[in-house]
Amino acid sequence: MNHQDTKTPREGPGEEWDAMAKVVVDAAFRVHSELGPGLLESVYEVCLAHELGKRGLQVERQVLLPVVYDGVKIEAGLRIDLLVDGKLIVELKAVENLLPVHKAQVLTYLKLSRRRLALLINFNVPLIQDGIKRIAL
After folding, report:
1. From start to end of the chain, where are the E strands?
2. What whole-number distance in Å separates Cα of residue 128 and Cα of residue 36?
3. What is the H or E stretch that residue 100 is in?
4. What is the pLDDT of residues 102-114, one digit of tens each?
5. Closest CA to 80 of 51, 58, 97, 105
6. For residues 91 and 78, what is the distance between their CA atoms, to the nearest angstrom?
7. What is the CA radius of gyration of the chain?
8. Cα–Cα distance between 15 and 99 in angstroms, integer?
9. What's the N-to-C CA distance of the chain in angstroms?
10. Alpha carbon 124 to chain centroid distance?
11. pLDDT digits (tens, 9 = 90+) for 15-40
12. Burial code of 97-123, b = ≥16 C-beta within 10 A, e = fewer?
């Protein structure tokens, strides 16, 4: 037995998620190149959902995310901005700088939804690649 055999394989998001994330990133580039920075988050949300739909992905907007606390399901008003193909969380921002609290929010959404991969996209940047963060559990 070698060292590789002793490792417990961790199922990551995998190639399917990576391909989906690539499509989302490409669509975000398209939206940003057309609109630029400076608009409201809700504008980018609608446009990105439209762009993803054109690319054949199923997109749900403002998906309610309940909190289970002490065995009780609580509707606390949490919403996932975009849920792509029922798997990939896309959280959008239009802020001057992404803060640690934004990443913490996405991590919490991943945990609560039991999903593995999210993209945090800030459209309020001169270069969109500077505003995209991939977050995986």
Report:
1. 59-64, 67-69, 72-74, 79-84, 88-93, 117-122, 132-136
2. 9
3. helix 100-113
4. 999 999 999 999 9
5. 105
6. 12
7. 16
8. 29
9. 29
10. 16
11. 888 899 999 999 999 999 999 999 99
12. ebeeebeebbeebbeebebbbbbbbbb
Distance CA 37, CA 127 (A): 9
How many whole angstroms separate alpha carbon 15 and alpha carbon 134? 14
Sign of CA dihedral 61, 94, 99, 14: positive
Decide if pLDDT at 3 tops 50. Answer: no
The sign of the CA dihedral 105, 31, 27, 62 is positive
Distance between CA atoms of residues 65 and 85, nearest Å: 16
Q: How many CB atoms lie within 10 A of CB 43?
A: 15
